[in-house]
Amino acid sequence: MPDARFVGLNAFQWIAMLAALLTLLLLVDAWAGHYRRGFIHRVQYAPFLSGGLLAIFAIAAVVAPRTGWIESALRVAGWLAVAVGLAGFCLHHYYGIIRKPGGYKLLLNYLMYGAPPLAPLALSAMGVFALIAAKGLAGGVDIAGLPIRTVLLALIVVCMFGAILQAGLLHFRGAFNNPLMYAPLTTPVLTALAGIWTMASPCSAAAIALCALLWLTLLTGFVGIGMHLRGFDRQMAGLYVSLFNWLQGPPAAAPAVFSGLAAIGLVTMRLL
Amino acid sequence: MTQGNGMGSHTRTAGANGERPLLAPGIHGEAVPMRDWSRDEVDVCVVGAGAGGGVVGAKLAEAGFSVVILDAGPHWDPLHDFVSDETASHKLFWTEERVTGGKDPVELGSNNSGQGVGGSTVHYSMIAMRLHADDFRRRTLEGSIAGADLQDWPLTYEDLEPYYEEVEQALQIAGPVHYPWQKRRRRFPQREHQLNASANMLVRGCAALGIPVAAAPVATLSAPHRDRPPCVYRGFCNYGCSTNAKSSILVTYIPRAIRAGAEVRPNAMVARIEHDATGRATGVLHFRTGPSSGHNGSELFRQRAKAIIVAGYAIETPRLLLNSASPLFPNGLANSSGMVGRYFMIHAGHQTFAKFPERIGQYKAPPGLAITEHFNRTMPDVDFSCGYTVEVVGPHVGDFAGRMSAARNLWGSALRRAMFDYNYYSGLGIVGETLPRLDNRVKLHDTERDRYGLPVAHVLFGHHENDQRLIDHSIGKMTEILRAARGEDVWGVNRTAHLMGTCRMGSDPNASVVDADGRAHDVPNLFICDGSVFPTSGAVNPSLTIQAIAARTADRVQAAAARGEL
Q1: What's the pLDDT tens digit per position in A81-135?
Q2: How does DSSP classify residue B135?
Q3: Any alpha helices (H) in B144-235, and if so which ranges?
Q4: How many structural domains comprise chain A?
Q5: Is the domain of A95 the same as that of A219?
Q6: Reported confidence tier of residue A1, pLDDT bands at 50, 70, 90
Q7: Set of chain B residues whose Cβ sits within 8 Å of the Cβ of A99
Q8: Which of B177, B218, B232 to mutate to test the interface with A (most CBs of A within 10 A)?
Q9: Labelling B361: which of A159, A226, B306, B498 has CA 20 to 30 A away?
Q10: What is the CATH number of the domain that holds B154?
Q11: Does A135 share its domain with A177?
Q12: Does residue A131 lie in a domain region?
């Protein structure tokens, strides 16, 4: 267990809590997407079951660390989230592209308007973060021979690139109608590159750069939430038909992924 | 005339001198102040506030010219005037009396016409396609065809390409990243729309047959743009878009024109163009009606102008020129060639429908979200020249009932029963090139008069045999596609779309009405920019080409003014 603490919580408690919060935010967007399609397949409820369990046990692990059954439950929930996310990725691909008329011939249209191809993998990523938190809370210091800190940084970099791809695709769909829509392609990219730099050659310069960029990315996410709220106010009738525009408009909570990943990165850099 | 010299001493701001201020409807239900040029000689008077007139008027106003844009219909307020009702939306069409005839009379007064500010762009299907380079040199490519008079355009695709880009940007056209039939082109300003069920049907059918297919470029927003929201796929595009997602001229160029100081004068029916003893146009005489004008159409008003631009589309433009006959121009203004009104063209618009096992809901979303231009070329193994584009169509229930009744001879309870399956039908339509024929024409009717006492247009049209062979081929292909998409019970209805020709552009003053700049050969300060200048029709929806020509005409007018020719 690391000694460094922030507001009374150690690194792995923070990671568990952030994973729980991010999972809940992801579920909000997943609900919007699946509700919009009317939950036509029962399997569309799976992420809510899996994500809900993950959030519950992650928060339980924060509140009651070193509780054996909670750590075991968190591990199970983590693996379940990984599996459900991977299954969701395959289903999104199958129903969102392969089963559509023309299939890959209209790939870009289906990537832009079909089920978001990378979104389910975010649940898998949260599952992995939860598993790492469980390992750390149980006193583990490495994973497959690699220091947990390095594994976390690598995971953050991978997730960051995934989020950049998904945001970039959807902002491309929106024709970058506001210059701030380029934001996910700037700070988070630099952050991911700084993460790679830090892993490849740990030095104070890289760490300082990474921390600074993580703070910027954290801010970018919050600004993104505000801009997305403004974005769906720019839809027809704006907030007056808020449920409709919540479902149609830019995903309100999605930019929080950047903030969440940045927060986990800061925890990793400062407390581990 | 020099650029901007009309904006000086005789400028009068709305409301000055104790007059009632001029207000125009804004696009969000507000009232927008507007200049009043009615008592001044303006630099440019534009007749018609549609696809051509709106663009040319706005560009010239922004360039500093004093501009008046007249339109025979009302200035629509999208939030209040555009109702989600098919029948109530007939007011958007030009329903004044016209006489149609010939071997194959063209149905008038509906989808191929418009009245009011924005013209037919307030109810068009928004498909925004460019002509291809080959379309500008049909005569060279096809040679002489007996019974037709194909001509090369005096413009090339390269001449028009920057203007296509300009209007695509202004209208924020939403189209595919890779457009299969125009690979070397700048990316559309907005991304293609998601496909509705009818578009999915076309994609499925084409994919099964190995026919290339793509999302259609359309003039409706797929993302917010300034103060306009993106499309919400209500599907009332052909009845006036009340959300302003549709990039009609009414919500794009007209507000620009007003902001730049132009006056847009609705309910102003132009009766004739006046000229001086030297043959230069001096202004227009028009009737004014409507409650906002305070007039009942019984008296003529004069709008003086240094240059006239006519953009009344392929029937009203030649009608106005012919109605403007004078001792100096006994056959009509700009008609020394006798070509005014000649070579009237339509697009073949045959539609084919099929019933599907799954619910389609063909009325949802813009009607033409997918297309294939695979047949838009002269094919090697067919018995006709030129080609056609296949597009998805989505008639609403009233229109569909009309088509079903006509095509299947259903009426009463039989029609009612058949209409229960409306939501399971989907259809395709073509935009097919028809050949220009001298005898297809618009002329003044000998006896019929409209409510202003003006001779009405007499439209004569007959298909060339090449047109009929093209239509027959398209019916076969559409049927194949519908069946490949799992459609059954296939039937079709013969229709036409779009109006072109009647004031064709060309280099020879004896065989054309205007030159490549849209400038009349006979009257140096008279321009035409609408579908009437097309020498050939092409096989794509014409609105974007009309707008591109208008954008170019605006530049040519500026250049002519700078040379002191106006």
Answers
A1: 999 999 999 999 999 999 999 999 999 999 999 999 899 999 999 999 999 999 9
A2: G
A3: 157-171, 197-209
A4: 2
A5: no
A6: low
A7: none
A8: B232
A9: B498
A10: 3.50.50.60
A11: no
A12: yes
The predicted-structure confidence for B32-48, as pLDDT tens digits, reads as follows 999 999 999 999 999 99
Residue of A nearest to B223 (CA): A174
Residue pair B344/B460 in contact by the 8 Å Cβ criterion: yes
Cα distances from B226 to residues B172, B252, B374, in angstroms, run: 11, 11, 35
Q: How far is A235 from chain B (nearest CA, A)?
A: 5
Residue A201 CB neighbours (<10 A): 9
CA dihedral A67, A70, A76, A78 (to 10 degrees): -90
User: Where do runs of H (alpha helix) occur along B25-76?
Assistant: 51-62
Residue B186 lies in a domain: yes
DSSP string spanning B375-401?
A: T-S--TTSSSSS-EEEEEE---HHHHH
Tokens, residue B396? 């609403």
Note down the domain range covering A265: 162-272
In a domain, A86, yes or no: yes
> For B498-520, b where at least 16 C-beta lie within 10 A, e where not — what string?
bbbbbbbbbeebebbbbbbbbbb
Q: How many domains would you assign to chain B?
A: 1
User: What residues in chain B have their Cβ under 8 A from chain A's Cβ atoms?
Assistant: 172, 176-178, 189-192, 194-195, 200-201, 203-204, 206-207, 213, 215, 222-225, 229-230, 232, 243, 245, 485
Looking at the structure, do residues A9 and A129 belong to the same domain, yes or no? yes
Residues A197, A131 share a domain: no
Does A134 share its domain with A71?
A: yes
Contacts 24+ apart (CB under 8 A), B375-382: B375/B473, B375/B474, B375/B477, B376/B132, B376/B181, B376/B539, B376/B540, B377/B134, B378/B141, B378/B142, B382/B469, B382/B473
Answer whether residue B279 is part of any domain: yes
What is the pLDDT, as a whole number, of residue A255?
A: 94
Token digits of residue B422: 């409306």
Angle between helices A46-63 and A11-36 in degrees, nearest 10 = 160
Residues A135 and A169 occupy one common structural domain: no
Reported as a pLDDT band with limits 50, 70 and 90, residue B558 is: very high
Phi, psi of A167 (to 5 degrees): -65, -40
Chain A residue numbers touching B222 (CB-CB < 8 A): 173-175
Place of tokens 């994919």: B207
Residue to substitute from B222, B242, B371, interface A, most A β-carbons within 10 A: B222
B306 in a structural domain: yes
Concatenating the DSSP letter of every residue in B475-505 gives: HHHHHHHHHHTT-EEEEEE--EEEEE-SS-B
Return the bridge partners of A5, or none: A10
The last residue of a domain, from among A110, A140, A170: A140
Rounded to whole angstroms, the Cα distance separating A81 from B77 reads 52
Cα(B283)–Cα(B296) distance, integer angstroms = 21
Beta-bridged to residue B355, according to DSSP, are B425, B488
Give domain status of residue A80, yes or no.
yes
Q: Give me the residues paired with residue B308 across strands.
A: B45, B526
Assess whether A9 and A135 both reside in one domain: yes
A118 contacts: CB under 8 Å, gap ≥ 6:
A89, A162, A165, A166
Q: What share of chain A is helix, strand, coil (3-state, %, to 5)?
A: 80, 5, 20
ipTM for the whole complex: 0.92
| Same domain assignment for residues A212 and A251 | yes
Q: Residue A153: inside a domain, yes or no?
A: no
Phi, psi of B404 (to 5 degrees): -65, -40
Query: How far is Cα of residue B235 from the mean position of the Cα atoms in its chain?
Result: 20
Domain with B535 in it: 41-562
**Residue B25 domain-assigned?**
no
Residue A252, both tokens: 């309100």
